[in-house]
DNA sequence: TGGATGATGGCCT
DNA sequence: GGCCATCATCCAA
């Protein structure tokens, strides 16, 4: 609809996106959270391929961030992958929904970027079928919604985000980037007010629930 | 082994 | 804006 990319992506029927390489994910977590805006998230399954532009992220900056699962170097079966090299996929379940993060920071520094919303690009009918709705605006405008729409699950935990079935490709630069407080972390002391949520300014697919600026 | 706890979403008023 | 379904995960015991 809105975006024509790089000469690589043209339209829904000719999606030939090339995954970003590992070096892209080695930048500092706050930078990565911003750099990921506009990139294309792609998931391949037996049912088909779905993709969308990342338009909202949150940074979780490791042991010093009280809102992070890895706060104080808390190391459990769930957070183990956060201690690995950047570019791994960290999925976890909360309230019956699966949320997807990209591990960042150097090995043994447990940081991650949460993908909170995407703008649907390809496989839209499949995403509607999985979500059981037809309204495009509500298809992927939340961290639990987008994983259900794209078929992202705990089966993706620990995978590399540089190769199928779940990977990220170059997209286009967002027209503008807005920044604000992270969502749903009110029980995190001072960290609740850190402005580490980023989104593409005015993009209609940004999550609206529990809005905080 | 069980109780507490959510980086949510959907429905209600 | 408020309420709550629902379950993987963690940790105390």
From TrEMBL:
Keywords tagged on the record: DNA damage, DNA repair, Hydrolase
SUPFAM superfamilies, per the entry: FMT C-terminal domain-like
InterPro entries: Formyl_transferase-like_C_sf (IPR011034), MPG (IPR003180), MPG_sf (IPR036995)
Iron-sulfur is among the record's keywords: no
Xref: Gene3D superfamilies: Methylpurine-DNA glycosylase (MPG) (3.10.300.10)
Top-level division of the source organism's lineage: Bacteria
Enzyme Commission code(s) on record: 3.2.2.-
GO BP, one annotated term: base-excision repair
Statement: the UniProt record of this protein carries the keyword Hydrolase: yes
Molecular-function GO term, any one: DNA binding
PANTHER family assigned: DNA-3-METHYLADENINE GLYCOSYLASE
UniProt similarity note: Belongs to the DNA glycosylase MPG family.
Name of the molecule in the record: Putative 3-methyladenine DNA glycosylase
Annotated organism of origin: Bacillus canaveralius
Phylogenetic lineage: Bacteria, Bacillati, Bacillota, Bacilli, Bacillales
């Amino acid at each position: 609809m809105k975006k024509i990319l790089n000469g690589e992506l043209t339209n829904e029927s000719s999606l030939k996106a090339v995954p970003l390489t590992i070096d892209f994910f080695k930048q500092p977590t706050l930078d990565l959270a911003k750099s990921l805006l506009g990139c294309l998230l792609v998931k391949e399954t037996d049912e088909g391929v779905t993709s969308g532009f990342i338009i909202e992220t949150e940074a979780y900056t490791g042991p010093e961030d009280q809102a992070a699962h890895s706060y104080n170097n808390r190391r459990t079966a769930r957070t183990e992958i956060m201690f690995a090299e950047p570019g791994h996929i960290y999925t976890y379940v909360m309230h019956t929904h699966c949320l997807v993060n990209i591990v960042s920071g150097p090995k043994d520094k447990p940081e991650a970027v949460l993908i909170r919303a995407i703008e649907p690009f390809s496989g839209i009918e499949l995403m509607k079928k999985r979500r059981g709705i037809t309204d495009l605006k509500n298809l992927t405008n939340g961290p639990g919604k987008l994983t259900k729409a794209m078929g992202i699950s705990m089966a993706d935990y620990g995978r590399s985000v540089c190769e199928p079935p779940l990977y990220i490709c170059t997209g286009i630069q967002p027209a503008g980037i807005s920044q604000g407080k992270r969502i749903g972390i009110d029980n995190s002391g001072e960290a609740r007010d850190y402005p580490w949520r980023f989104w593409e300014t005015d993009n209609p697919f940004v999550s609206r629930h529990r809005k905080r600026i």
